[in-house]
Amino acid sequence: xxxxxxxxxxxxxxxxxxxxxxxxxxxxxxxxxxxxxxxxxxxxxxxxxxxxxxxxxxxxxxxxxxxxxxxxxxxxxxxxxxxxxxxxxxxxxxxxxxxxxxxxxxxxxxxxxxxxxxxxxxxxxxxxxxxxxxxxxxxxxxxxxxxxxxxxxxxxxxxxxxxxxxxxxxxxxxxxxxxxxxxxxxxxxxxxxxxxxxxxxxxxxxxxxxxxxxxxxxxxxxxxxxxxxxxxxxxxxxxxxxxxxxxxxxxxxxxxxxxxxxxxxxxxxxxxx
Amino acid sequence: xxxxxxxxxxxxxxxxxxxxxxxxxxxxxxxxxxxxxxxxxxxxxxxxxxxxxxxxxxxxxxxxxxxxxxxxxxxxxxxxxxxxxxxxxxxxxxxxxxxxxxxxxxxxxxxxxxxxxxxxxxxxxxxxxxxxxxxxxxxxxxxxxxxxxxxxxxxxxxxxxxxxxxxxxxxxxxxxxxxxxxxxxxxxxxxxxxxxxxxxxxxxxxxxxxxxxxxxxxxxxxxxxxxxxxxxxxxxxxxxxxxxxxxxxxxxxxxxxxxxxxxxxxxxxxxxxxxxxxxxxxxxxxxxxx
Lengths: 273, 290
Fold this sequence. Notes:
CATH superfamily of the largest domain in chain B: MetI-like
Strand order of the largest sheet of chain B: 1-2
CATH class of the largest domain in chain B: Mainly Alpha
CATH architecture of the domain at 23-94 and 157-235 and 245-252 in chain A: 3-Layer(aba) Sandwich
Shape of chain A: globular
Order of helices and strands of chain B: EEHHHHHHHHHH
Number of strands of chain A: 9
Strand order of the largest sheet of chain A: 5-6-7-3-8-9
Number of strands of chain B: 2
Strand content of chain B: under 5%
Structural class of chain B: mainly alpha
Helix content of chain B: 55-70%
Strand content of chain A: 15-25%
Oligomer: heterodimer
Number of helices of chain A: 7
């Protein structure tokens, strides 16, 4: 990012759509275990720039572990991982630093100069929160805080955007708006996206590919070719939904089809790590 | 007091018991003391102290208490005038303040550095946390005779005592404030490629600041306490010197005047620390800081 790039407001946030198609994640035979317990067992996965991938699976199947490895927050035990250097994470909770103003939370360590401030304001504008830029995080609602988390991720013009159940704590209406926002931002900036979620419908609504994780393996890698915006009531949508649910059912035979994830061996919904 | 008029339900044939509330915007709503004006609040707060002062003055002017045991407020005011005219108070205050200030800065500073390092490094914590915790349990006033032997009866022993008393509140609170920071927030630093120093500057210190300030506030209190104890050691200057001299001449009025100076110092220090908290922790205020 040079100073001349900042001459035009539109180009404040870098856009590199021309790189679409390059792999931002390449995992070869990747495994992760804690002592005796094997979490991930020989994962092969490629995600391209501009590709929106959703990762599904019951609690405890290593979805979050995989995301944390991709986010450089954890090391794998064996295998090979090539991951884009510019990677941003949006966590399940907003994880804002209460002692810093909103725009500072977006900038973080990238200096406090006028250029980074403008970039932060531009990123906040994209998530519709420019008017809250100088506020303290404590005045934000849950949905707003999560959008700041999104702006913080976007600020870095990531090649790979990792979303760890970012809508889990939001109410249904706010969640739909946040999903639309993520879709818009993805279409605009074209990073590779990996969305970890519990919600089958959410994954099918947003992603190009739905990957089902189970028993440490990739159980299914389903391509979602239905054009956006997707109609959750359409026949094509529900056909794929049935397939994904069947794959999830294969992981655990006790799942009922209408509401498969709520019967996940009594495990709590939010604890995946 | 209340804006509500609750109408009990009287219909004998009603099975469902209900209460109807009528809200009138013209009448003040409930909420007790919260909705009282500042003037009323202040007046209520003043009742007890002013009442005590009046009672005190009455008891001495009516001769209920022996004036050598407890001289009245006016006598103490006269004592201040006397001390001021002789130049004793002006000479003593800066000396006492300097002792407390220097001791607090050195002790609190040491506690801050030790606390930050122990908070960030498990190794450092293992090296010196246990010995510090052991020393902490010793009441510092018990060290007075030892410090006199080590450092004599001059300034060194007095300031050392204040240093020793101010280290621990800052150390403990800083250490706990840093350890109490959510690990998930430290992970944010790792995710977004912050260096260790940047994480400390942007995440750790701002978030630990409330705890650190609590430590300094406690330390300021104990520094003052240590000052009082230290100034009992053969003082040649300071508020303690005034107290000791007054003691020899049985001047209860001057003793009380000296004690009240300590009290006012305590209030001032607390006020300064509260002010610092407001300045340094704007993000904790109820309203948006804009």
